[in-house]
Write a structure and sequence with these properties.
The chain is α+β, with helices and mostly antiparallel strands. The chain is built from 8 helices and 3 strands; from the N terminus they run αααααβββααα. Helix 1 packs antiparallel against helix 3, helix 2 packs across helix 3 and helix 5 runs antiparallel to helix 7. It is globular, with a radius of gyration of 16 Å. The chain starts with 21 loop residues before the first helix and ends with a helix. The structure holds manganese (II) ion (MN). Manganese (II) ion (MN) binds next to helix 1.
Length: 195
């Protein structure tokens, strides 16, 4: 049986303070992501999904109305692993030209990303993606992921309340600003743009 294990963080739980506290990382990475992984392993055990790579589980279950729970948990595993690789200590700040240029400059990229992230109603994700030849910003609701739509993720921010409520309470805009100014791993995003 294929069984996913926890994806390790690439930094210590205290390394992102004060922009993301160790309490948030302990709860978000240590408990929420761990629960999605456990649920996915439990739900897929004994099904056609049991031995599939994670990306294949997401693509197949997205079109399987009987596998909604598998889709939700698999997509959340992918989304969270991707998100935790999009952040790092002493990240953020100057937007690399190859990311800013498709939007007409860093200020416009930051304004559009922040606007879309602020506009997610309820739980969801904001993404920088490659869709065909186009680099663009999009949002997904709940567990939904660009992977399910044949769109390539380049960068993401989790805007579920569990991602920021311990540190920012209802101030999602402050969390978005902290992500862009202090947390984004631009090298990871640039690598994704090359592939
Ligand atoms: Mn989350």
């Amino acid at each position: 049986m294929f069984s996913l294990t926890q994806f390790p963080l690439h930094f210590s739980e205290s390394a992102l303070a004060p922009y993301m506290s160790s309490d948030t990382l302990n709860c978000h990475h240590g408990r929420h992501l761990a629960t999605y992984i456990k649920n996915l392993n439990d739900l897929s055990d004994g099904t056609e999904y049991a031995d599939m790579p994670l990306i294949e589980i997401i693509k197949k279950s997205a079109n399987d109305t009987g596998a909604k729970k598998i889709f939700n948990n698999a997509a959340q595993v992918f989304n969270h692993d991707f998100f935790f690789r999009c952040i790092m200590p002493n990240g953020g700040g100057n937007v690399p030209d190859e990311i800013a240029n498709p939007f007409g400059g860093a200020d416009k990229f930051i304004a559009e990303f922040s606007s879309v992230a602020s506009g997610v109603f309820g739980s969801g994700w904001v993404w920088l993606v490659r869709d065909g030849d186009e680099i663009k910003i999009m949002a997904t609701a709940n567990a939904d992921t660009p992977i399910a739509h044949g769109i390539t993720p380049l960068m993401t921010l989790d805007v579920w309340e569990h991602a920021y409520y311990l540190d920012y309470q209802n101030r999602r805009a402050d969390f978005i600003n902290a992500f862009l100014s202090h947390l984004v791993n631009w090298d990871f995003v640039r690598e994704n743009m090359k592939n």
